Amino acid sequence: MNWLNSEAFTLFGQRIIWSDMVGNILGLITLALGWRRSLLTWPVQFLSGLVLFAAFYGHLTGSAGKQVVVMVVALYGWWQWQSSKGRSADGHIAPRFATWRERAAMLGAAAAGTVAVALLFTAYPSLSWDPWPDAYIFVGTIVAMYAQAKGMVEFWIAWLLVDLVGVPLNFANGYAFSGFVYVIYGALVLWGMRDWWLRSRRDPQPVLEGAPA
Description:
Order of helices and strands: EEHHHEHHHHE
Structural class: mainly alpha
Low-confidence stretches: 204-213
Helix content: 55-70%
Largest sheet: 2 strands, antiparallel
Shape: globular
Strand order of the largest sheet: 1-2
Number of helices: 7
Mean pLDDT: 78
């Protein structure tokens, strides 16, 4: 798997690494599929995590471990969407806004998780080059994926908050392709959030499977 960490090409003076490019292209496809509320978003997300795990395994243990968590959450998201009883009229999962209790729980989990993971990264420097921003992105990604699995419109906001830190961090650490992709993520997030927002207003009550259309 050494080829995954080799240089694919140079863009604007930045080295583009194969693993960075392939993993993030899959991540971009995942976000687009999430916008369409397609069940395929989760297998593609899992594949993205698998590619990055293969690239990091053996020399960046912490980064490889983070991808394992992402893959587990992707399996959870697939199970949630596959087994969900609440669907909109088009047969896909029905977007909804989180309750205030759910929002508070996610914010609390994000804050506590970021502190805990950052302290872990600080205690074991080999796990991360930038403990606090890396922990913020990692925990924020998990929270966003969880909210997406639950069909919450807020998952787009979580992704946007992750992007605000992810773009400069990726450029600073030499992952230029990730930085470019995160910029595109930002545009997709805004469009996707608008689409889910409007759908939640237009069809606020999910249609149960088996119910007449």
